[in-house]
Every structure is written in C-alpha cells, then in structure tokens.
Description:
Blueprint: H1 2-32, H2 41-50, H3 54-63
Amino acid sequence: MNELILQYLPFLIPLLVVQLGLMTVALIHILRHKKYRVGNRALWIAVVVLLNVVGPVLYFAIGRGDE
Length: 67
C-alpha cells in the first residue's frame, strides 16, 4: 500500500497545490466583491469549498460579476 501511495505522490502534490491555490484565490475574490452574475455570496462559498477544483473554475467562469 505504501508503494502505491509513493508511486502517485508526484502527481498528487501538484494537484493539491493547484486545488488549494484556486480555492484560496476564489474565496478571496468572493469575500472582497459583492456582485455576482448568478447566486449570492453564501452559495459561491459553498460551491468553491465543496466542489474542490471544479468549484473555483465554475465561479470564475460563470459566477464572477462584472467589475
């Protein structure tokens, strides 16, 4: 089992860094801005936190309001 984890570790670490980076940037943007194209602040925080990599991408694609 440990060999399997060590085998995939070089793939998992960059994926984790990208996930945390996207989530952090999206949450900062959500908390600083009040206008969204769809939904409200609570909805987008839940989407970003619960949907991991897909949530921040959805927020930046369809949720972020015009500035």
